Amino acid sequence: MTHGMHTDTHPPYLDGGRDWRDSAARYALLPLRVFLGVTFIYAGLDKLTDSAFLKDSGSGSVGDMMRAVRDSAAIPQMVDMALESPVGFGYAIAFGELAVGIGTLIGLLARLAALGGALISLSLWLTVSWASDPYYYGNDLPYLMAWLPLVLAGAPMFSVDAAIRARRRQRLGGYR
Asked: How many CA atoms lie within 13 A of 2 on its CB side?
């Protein structure tokens, strides 16, 4: 008796909406990934090309910045570690931001890159922007929160990771 009748629970005219929502969900993290990737690449390059930043002391130096935030940091010991070699710390942060930004933007080891970005943001929140009052005036906490979806999801679209997975799946004959 039901031969030829449509028995699906969703009317056919709603399928297009589901396709659109599925596509939007697949691409939802792409703008965040591009923003964080470009921003961290820029931040790393900005530090590496700023002769004042990569100094032990002086206006705009990483050393003076660390000394200025030391007593207001949540974990002053982290600042003390940075102050053992401010220039080395400045280079480490700059190259770390560059690696995180490139990995995030191209989607190479995307979860690891996002974890690196989250850890950089967490360390900056606990030191540099900890004294922001109210807390939402500091920018490092929102960056930390922005990294978390990418830590969880990686870069499933338009990424080196996705291309590697597709190639591996192809080699295995569609399994995996």
From this structure: 3
DSSP, residue by residue, the chain = --TT----SS-GGGHHHHHHHHHHHHHTTHHHHHHHHHHHHHHHHHHHT-TTTTSSSSTT-HHHHHHHHGGG-S-HHHHHHHHHSHHHHHHHHHHHHHHHHHHHHHTSSHHHHHHHHHHHHHHHHHHTSTT-SSGGGSSHHHHHHHHHHHHHH---SSSHHHHHHHHHHHHTTT--
Task: Supply the pLDDT for residue 165.
Answer: 93
pTM, two decimal places: 0.84
The dihedral region occupied by 60, where left means phi > 0, alpha psi between -120 and 50, and beta the remainder, is left
Question: For 39-90, how does the pLDDT look when each residue is reduced to its tens digit (9 = 90+)?
Answer: 999 999 999 999 999 999 999 999 999 999 999 999 999 999 999 999 999 9
pLDDT bucket at 97, cuts 50 / 70 / 90: very high
Closest to 107 in 3D by CA, of 44, 172, 25, 164: 164
